[in-house]
Amino acid sequence: MQKYSSRAIFTISILFVAFMLLAMPMAITQVSWPAMRDEFGLRQDSIGLLLIMGTIGHIISGIFNGRMMYRLGAKNLMLLSVLVYGLSLFGYWLTPSWYLLVTLGLVGGWAAGVIDATGNTVAAARYDERIMNWLHGFFGLGATIGPLVIGLVLDFGSDWRGSAFVFASLIMLLFVVMLIFRPLDGDESVSEEEGQKDTSEESSVRGVETLRQPVVWVAILFFFVYGGIEVSIGQWAFTLFTESRGLAEENARCWVSIYWGTFTAGRF
């Protein structure tokens, strides 16, 4: 097992928290969609537009993330994306318009995609595959906790907007911690092997060259199918349980949390 300095452990911990907070707001569209739909007077399938805009934001961040990291550096790009993600969720809290919410979905999707890609790149460049696996475990932990947090917010008499405010506040707290302590400014590992690793997060490999590798297209296809199944079930489970199966909302939120918890256990 590789040993890390205290600075490296702090950086890794911040990345774990970032991925957990990255996933928690997903619960807004999952367990609060019926309330959002009724408030804005929408059809059931209108959620598709919001999800598509978030996906477009992720795609844009994926295409340009390497270039942005080269221009801004991993630490500055991570700070910017966490700030934008938090502000987009504050927008969820305040927006009076469905179409403004959709626009915020695009912005938030871009920011979430940048956090995801940059965090993975830092973990791969500075540390090892084990740390990256744990990153995704903490993402699953955030997805598991999210519905439960919304349940607590509702118990205090708020609504889905209050949930967005809570998630945004937590993310902005992370931004302040990162701004003050600068965890991605670089760290030295105890092990000699780690010291020999390239931690610049800069790559001379172009995206086109990567896409020429057949294994990359296999991975893209796999994630397209797997991600679609996983997210579709997570998105519609609450609505199905409450509006078609007659389950109480608090019980439905618990089952959505358990659903994501099974993935989390597998990842850990």
Task: Write the SSE topology.
Elements: H1 6-23, H2 26-31, H3 33-40, H4 47-72, H5 74-94, H6 98-126, H7 129-155, H8 160-181, H9 192-195, H10 207-211, H11 214-243, H12 249-267
Helix pairs in contact: 1-6, 1-7, 1-8, 4-5, 4-6, 5-6, 5-8, 6-7, 7-8, 7-12, 11-12
Summarize this structure briefly:
The chain is built from 12 helices and no strands.
Structure description:
The protein is mostly helical and 268 residues long. 80% of the residues lie in helices and 0% in strands. The protein has 12 helices and no strands. It has helices at residues 6-23, 26-31, 33-40, 47-72, 74-94, 98-126, 129-155, 160-181, 192-195, 207-211, 214-243, 249-267. Helix 4 (47-72) packs across helix 6 (98-126), helix 5 (74-94) runs antiparallel to helix 8 (160-181) and helix 11 packs antiparallel against helix 12. The radius of gyration is 19 Å and the shape is globular. The model is unreliable at 188-202 (pLDDT under 50).
